[in-house]
Amino acid sequence: MRPVVDRRQALAVVALLGFLKPSRGLADMKFIRLDPPKLLPAFALQDQDGGPFGLAQLRGHWTLLFMGYTFCPDICPYTLANLEAVLDAVAKRGPPQQQMPRVVFLAVDPARDKPVLKSYMSNFGSRFTGITGSLDAIQVLIDGMGGYVRREAPDKDGNYTVVHTAAVSVVDPSARIVATMLPPFEPTETAGRLIALVKDARVSGS
């Protein structure tokens, strides 16, 4: 079994989301600011090129942090494509380049993820970074995000699914989670909320 990344289909679903404007109340439930922010713990993982990835790589810029696995048949590729559309919408609003968020995909199934992570992430462009490591090291970051992962029993062919948190953590340049977002995201609405979050942080000096 190989990872499934039907990017065109995922982008088609995302395009449909652009026509489905959520009500203000629903949008508020899907984008939640944390007060106070939650500082992420120190962790030691590797990116898709084998380089070290920890708190140092999160500091100094905004990050959208999402967990999943490369063999996920639907939620993961759709969410990553959805985030790609959000970043495009942010860019169209013209914020300073240094404020453009990056996307980090925490691959939580290292036995299958490590060999294919670089190829998988190439489907989503240079703004996306995949990270993984040992199960224990991954769990440190999962716990810091307040997430969960459960690996289901394999079928007769050895294939299995991984149940995991679908929320995206918005991480500020101090490596603190300042908001969470629940997919799917309407790109323009979400871009506006991210821009407002960055602006508020800049004004408050946090």
What would you say this structure looks like, in words?
By secondary structure, this protein is α+β, with helices and mostly antiparallel strands. The chain has a single domain, classed as Glutaredoxin. The chain contains eight helices and ten strands. A hairpin with a 4-residue loop joins strand 2 and strand 3 (52-53). The relative contact order is 0.23. Mean pLDDT is 86; it is low at 9-26.
Strand content: 15-25%
Mean pLDDT: 86
Here the CATH topology equals Glutaredoxin
Which value, in Å, is the CA radius of gyration? 16 Å
Widest sheet: strand ordering: 1-10-9-4-5-6-2-3
Order of helices and strands: HHEEEHEHEHHEHEEEEH
Per CATH, the superfamily is Glutaredoxin
Number of strands: 10
Summarize the main sheet: 8 strands, mixed
Low-confidence stretches: 9-26
What descriptors fit this protein?
alpha+beta; eight-stranded mixed beta sheet; single chain; globular
Q: How would you concisely characterize the structure shown here?
A:
With 206 residues, the protein is an alpha+beta fold.
Please describe the topology of this protein.
Elements: H1 7-17, H2 24-30, E1 31-39, E2 45-47, E3 52-53, H3 55-58, E4 63-68, H4 75-92, E5 102-107, H5 110-113, H6 117-121, E6 128-132, H7 135-145, E7 149-151, E8 162-164, E9 168-171, E10 176-181, H8 187-204
Parallel strand pairs: 4-5, 5-6
Antiparallel strand pairs: 1-10, 2-3, 2-6, 4-9, 7-8, 9-10
